[in-house]
Amino acid sequence: MSTESQSTNVTEEETSVTEQVNASERLETEALAEPETELELDQVFEILKNQRRRYVLQYLNEVDDTVSMSDLAEEIAALENGKEVSQLSSSERKRVYVGLYQCHLPKMDSMGVVSFNKPRGLIERGPNAAVFDEYLESEPEDDGPAWHRIHAITAGASAVTLLVALLVQPFVAAPLVVLAGLLIVAANVGCSAAHYQWVRANGDEDDDGVGVAIGETSSA
């Protein structure tokens, strides 16, 4: 075979290899640029129907950055309990942390709503997060009852009731102090029960069967 023919064959082979490499690179670029599968309407409402998941979306919108599990759990626990973060108990933090870690964030991650790095405990907005922006913007702010105020009012009313009973008791035969005590207990138990049920209904409706893993919640 002549030198010219060999040169032509080598050139053709190089051109073929170059074309294959370019085609492969184009496919990779298109795959990376391809958006996450669009969510169905029922999937959108599946995410939005839960208050805790709405809190996640709202908080990630506000910070617009990667957040840690502990920070996210604290912020949501504060909203759910009507408290400042500094006033939260460890059980209130842990309860939200476990629900997010084992239930809500994996579900949101599977739909591309958030990006959840489970080993590192980091969360950020996912490729489908923008789908929910219009719903969150149009939704009136409703963080539920201001439970800290309700508990404060209940405590204040209890104190007033007991004081009145003590002042009036010397002038009546009925056991007003005992009756006042029973009324105070009933009012506080009722208030606490209502608060607990509200948190259960708005934060944990998808958390049934979620267990507490010691190793997973030690940083909560």
UniProtKB/TrEMBL annotation:
It holds the Pfam family DUF7344. Residues 45-124 form the DUF7344 domain. The keyword Membrane applies. Keywords: Membrane, Transmembrane, Transmembrane helix. Residues 1-34 are annotated as: Disordered. Residues 1-10 have a biased composition (Low complexity). The chain crosses the membrane at residues 174-194. It comes from the Archaea. This is DUF7344 domain-containing protein.
